[in-house]
Amino acid sequence: MQDVTDIDMLQQTINIQSCLMAGHSIEAIFRNESHYIFEESGADMGGLCILQKDSLQLEFILEKSNIFHGLLKRYHLQSHTLVLDTLKKKNAKAFTAGEEYTVTDSIEDLLIDSISKQKIKHFEESHAFNHMVVFPLFSFEQQIIGCIFFGFLGASQPEIEKLTKIKKMIETVIRPFHDEKTRMFQGKCIQINNDIPLLTAKEKHILKKLLAAKSYSDIAKEMHISVNTVKTHVKHIYAKYEVNSKLELANKVNAGLLS
């Protein structure tokens, strides 16, 4: 498998943001994109936790198998109702101290407020759980608004560089949902930002090729359209991003993910 490229990640971010702005559920979108996330991260499971005022909530968890959801079902628990006080407290301390992520060899911090230590240990031993990596998610005002975590089983090992790229993508995607005044996430995007306009399918393909430094003639050949048609689509993309050149476009698209 090839390494994750910045262009790939930018394209994925654009796709997800476009779906969100069209009104689709963030959980449904990420479940639909789970194959991509697992392939690029190398993780066996991952979850998104968000802060609603002062309460940390597990929004959803994705996994290659169904072992985590099976664990919850066995003890009559639901992901949305898990108590995450320990996870919040331990990681808030680390992130406030400037750590970019935390790594543990147990999933205990995620579950200890809801399941006994003995049951957690049995789960970890049964599935050869070896690492959990947690990253903070920040708002536009650089306030912590949640976190994402990745779990690894068996011989799987975390690659921090790849996980950091996924973290930045998810952070870019969820920021517009957060209301700084109420410190709450909304069900629909509350900030229509010019940095993330709604593009058509063809405009997304052309944007990706522009970011890859393809010429208009190369794009026209690859997409089987005329150069004039390419120019028309580029004009629409520039208008939606409110830019006047390829450089301005690249800077504006890259700002959210690559900074």
From TrEMBL:
SUPFAM superfamilies: C-terminal effector domain of the bipartite response regulators (SSF46894). The keyword Protein biosynthesis does not apply. It holds the Pfam family GerE. SMART domains: HTH_LUXR. Keywords: DNA-binding, Transcription, Transcription regulation. It comes from the Bacteria. The keyword Amino-acid biosynthesis does not apply. Residues 192-257 form the HTH luxR-type domain. This is HTH luxR-type domain-containing protein. It comes from Thiomicrorhabdus immobilis.
